[in-house]
Automatic annotation (TrEMBL):
AMP binds at T32, R37, N58, L59, I60, G87, F88, P89, R90, Q94, R135, R146. Signal peptide: none annotated. InterPro entries: Adenylat/UMP-CMP_kin, Adenylat_kinase_CS, P-loop_NTPase. This is Adenylate kinase. Residues 31-60 are annotated as: NMP. ATP binds at G11, S12, G13, K14, G15, T16, R129, G174. SUPFAM superfamilies: P-loop containing nucleoside triphosphate hydrolases. The gene is adk. It comes from Duncaniella freteri. Keywords: ATP-binding, Cytoplasm, Kinase, Nucleotide biosynthesis, Nucleotide-binding, Transferase.
């Protein structure tokens, strides 16, 4: 298998670039945000719990998030030639759980694609997205909170993956195709 993590702040383009990577490399997309929004839309018990965190810009607790992810991985692994993890890991414990989970199954993360976008650009993109996304976390107050959570809790993972040599830094401003070209260049290096 060939497994990637796509990493970056809220609105950095993880979902958009994942779709293009799937087309190019035939990978399986696992977006934790999409999984959770699916549960919310279906009105499940899990969805209700998830909504109480997401709508405030907070992260879902690690143990819950890890068990959701493990179930997804197990279901999709037999038919997959590789995963793109989008929105996971978001904390150091999640990253440890992910390596452990993959190791047990004889797999690993090959590279972490880090989309580097400054906060002012992220904020502007999310405000724009909020006008059409219908996502109730794309509003000014929640966006500010999500950026705080990103800097305090998620961005230490950047150093974590830089230290172990798997981080691939991508300049995340430009057209969707320009950014995609940069990602493909890094992957094929
Ligand atoms: P992008 O626009 O780059 O795809 P995003 O931050 O807008 O990123 P999602 O990745 O879809 O959006 O996440 C939306 C919300 O779902 C998060 O703010 C968080 O509350 C919850 N969530 C998603 N993934 C995780 C995770 N790994 N751990 C905890 N909570 C998560
Ligand atoms: Mg997303």
């Amino acid at each position: 298998m060939f497994n990637l993590v796509i990493f970056g702040g809220p609105g950095s383009g993880k979902g958009t670039q994942s779709e293009k990577l799937i087309d190019r490399y035939g990978l399986t997309h696992i977006s934790t945000g999409e999984v959770l929004r699916g549960e919310i839309a279906a009105g499940t018990e899990l969805g209700k719990i998830a909504d109480s965190y997401i709508s405030k810009g907070n992260l879902i607790p690690d143990d819950l998030m890890v068990s959701i992810l493990a179930a997804k991985v197990d279901r999709l692994m037999p038919s997959s030639k590789g995963f793109i993890f989008d929105g996971f890991p978001r904390t150091i414990p999640q990253a440890d759980a992910l390596s452990e989970m993959l190791e047990k199954r004889g797999e690993k993360i090959h590279s972490v694609i880090g989309l580097e976008v400054p906060d002012d650009v992220l904020t502007a993109r999310l405000i724009e997205r909020g006008k059409v996304s219908g996502r109730d976390d794309d509003n000014a107050d929640t966006i500010r909170k999500r950026l705080d959570v990103y800097h305090n809790t998620t961005s230490p993972l950047r150093e974590y993956y830089i230290r172990d040599g798997r981080y691939r830094s991508i300049h995340g401003i430009g057209s969707i195709d320009e950014i995609f070209t940069r990602i493909v260049e890094k992957i094929e290096q």
